[in-house]
Known about the structure:
Blueprint: H1 3-47, H2 60-91, H3 96-148, H4 152-209, H5 214-246
Amino acid sequence: AHAAPLCSRADLRKQARQLENELDLKLVSFSKLCTSYSGARDGRRDRYSSDTTPLLNGSSQDRMFETMAVEIEQLLGKLTGINDKMAEYTNSAGVPSLNAALMHTLQRHRDILQDYTHEFHKTKANFLAIRERENLLGSVRKDIESYKSGSGVNNRRTELFLKEHEHLRNSDRLIEETISIAMATKENMTSQRGMLKSIQSKMNTLANRFPAVNSLIQRINLRKRRDSLILGGVIGICTILLLLYAFH
Length: 248
């Protein structure tokens, strides 16, 4: 009564091993395809540094990838179905020792199926990531090439505008620095003038009290005026030189 089920289980195990062998070969080829795809794209980037050749253009590798992915998915589906049928026969086995042996065999086939499924999804994800990266790089290269192949006159004009803009910014910065120096100098001179006025007031008071030092006070005032004129001339010359340098 159990001959037919035993025969069916043997057939299922045979089919499972055949599918596993076929999947193993397919996955090896699939992994090599992914590796060669990445290497081919890297080599093409090195050879065509001018970015005139698109990286992806419906290549045979892309079509081969899609075909092999479909085939592997179909094989995985078939192997899953075989494992499910083996599980049904295992659950229907009446002999405990036979049932334990079948459970062990079924678990081994399930582990193999799980490993193949994981390997397939990992390889497929790596392939898609490489292709997406290459598509992105290809798009960037096309944009750069488009910019490079634009009108030379327009590019030259743009460069001149950028240089002129940078020159104006530098001039504005120099002018601001010059104005800041002038303002600081003015504040310093104002402070010094206040101090000198205070000293002069005190000296005038002393001169009024002591006429003998009046001539000394006059000489000091003359030297102070001379020093002020010299200082003002130096500051004016420095300011003019800075402005001439800024607008040169």
